[in-house]
Write a structure and sequence with these properties.
The chain is mostly beta strands. The protein has one helix spanning about 15-25, and strands at about 35, 40-45, 50-55, 55-60, 70-75, 80-85, 95-100, 110-120, 135-145, 155, 165-170, 175-180, 185-195, 210-215, 220-230, 235-240, 255-260, 265, 290-295, 295-300, 315, 335, 355, 375-380. The protein starts with 16 loop residues before the first helix and ends with a strand.
Length: about 375
């Protein structure tokens, strides 16, 4: 019969342990792993020796010996010290630290869980041993030939946290997104913002009747994509565009940001140099906003401004950098002397262009654009 009765916890019904484990499986969406980030962490002994300490914590462990074995909940309420067997005189080896279930309904005669070390085989190029049934891997330990102590540098953390349903991952520098680190996730919402362009520089000191006005940098482009994790590569390249750097001439363009080929956006263009002129309407033009080229939603960054008019005689305005989807633009300010440039705001904002008039300012570099960002929201 396909239907199992009675339902779990229905009034006074009695239930085999398998039913309760199946309930756990459903509640954690067939996930497994430690519950919190600190749970069951493996570290060196306080005074390093041939043992390791396993922190207190909780975990869910899926049974692997039968289809309906279900998931067990385990808890350790204090630090557990585990022995690493003596090292080999000639070759290194790799050991595993695991949390494992023994279930007499499936095999053997024991009903228990434990923290254990599975010793590998010494070899010139050692391989990790086979992980036991009904277990989760907490760490691998590299045991060198003739080793007499195990320190943190020998321990690789292999814990996977059970399905939290949602996780936010932010990249502020280029890296890789490794899908296996989030085995519970089914969908990702990815947002990328490219770097902002730098404002233009001020080319030379203004004379007694001259003006100079640098153009603002363009804002970084924005792209957004919704991706099923099954459609992702095992490792997706994450590129975070840096803000363009300022020079004494035209500002540099910001770097592109991307999440693989799924969401791609270009950096904002740098603003033009603020060349000398005898009129307050002389100045550098603003840089264009960066465009997106891949993603379900593609939005160009705001263009940098060139504040060439709209002020009274003898005055001059700064040129705001363009905004992005995660950055506003600077407010333009009016000055009768010199106004310094300013770096882009937020993520992907363009640099603000400075001004100089009537021998009041020297040549200077433009302001940098703001760096971009890549945001990955994971759903289980």
């Amino acid at each position: 019969m396909a239907v199992t009765n009675p339902p779990v916890f229905l009034q006074a019904g009695s239930h085999p342990a398998e039913d309760v484990r199946r309930l756990f499986s459903a509640l954690v969406k067939d996930g497994e792993g430690t519950v919190l980030a600190a749970d069951l962490a493996v570290v060196e002994q306080g005074t390093p020796d041939m043992t390791v300490d396993v922190a207190a914590g909780r975990a869910f462990i899926k049974g692997t010996e039968s289809t309906y074995q279900g998931t067990s909940f385990v808890e350790s309420r204090a630090i557990e010290n585990l022995t690493i067997t003596a090292s080999d005189a000639s070759n290194p080896r790799i050991d595993l630290v695991v949390a494992k279930i023994e279930d007499s309904a499936e095999s053997g005669a024991t009903d228990a869980w434990s923290l254990a070390v599975v010793a590998g085989t010494p070899a010139a190029s050692p391989a990790a041993p086979t992980q036991p049934a009904n277990s989760i891997l907490l760490a691998t330990v590299a045991v060198a030939a003739l080793a007499s102590t195990i320190v943190d540098a020998n321990i690789t953390d292999n814990r996977v946290h059970m399905n939290p349903g949602y996780q936010l991952v932010k990249f502020t520098a280029s890296s890789s997104f490794v899908k296996a680190n989030y085995p519970w996730a089914t969908t990702a919402s990815v947002r990328v913002v490219a770097g902002g362009g730098a404002s233009g520089g001020l080319a030379a000191t203004t004379g007694s009747t001259q003006f100079a006005m640098a153009g603002g940098g363009g804002g970084g482009g924005y792209a957004e994509a919704r991706i099923a994790t099954t459609a992702m590569s095992a490792s997706e390249t994450v590129t975070v565009g840096t803000g363009g750097t300022g020079t004494a001439t035209t500002g540099n363009t910001g770097g592109a940001s991307s999440f693989g080929s799924n969401a791609v956006a270009a950096g904002g263009v740098g603003g033009s140099v603020g060349a000398q002129g005898t009129s307050q309407v002389s100045g550098g033009s603003g840089g264009a906003g960066g465009a997106a080229s891949a993603g379900d939603i593609q939005i160009s960054g705001g263009g940098g401004a060139s504040q060439l008019s709209g002020v009274a005689s003898g005055q001059i305005k700064t040129s705001p950098g363009g905004g992005s989807q995660l950055a506003g633009s600077h407010a333009s300010t009016v000055t009768t002397a010199t106004q310094s440039s300013a770096a882009g705001l937020g993520f992907g904002g363009g640099g603000m262009g400075g001004t100089s008039r009537n021998a009041s300012g020297a040549a200077s570099n433009g302001a940098a654009g703001a760096d971009g960002i890549v945001i990955v929201e994971l759903f289980g």
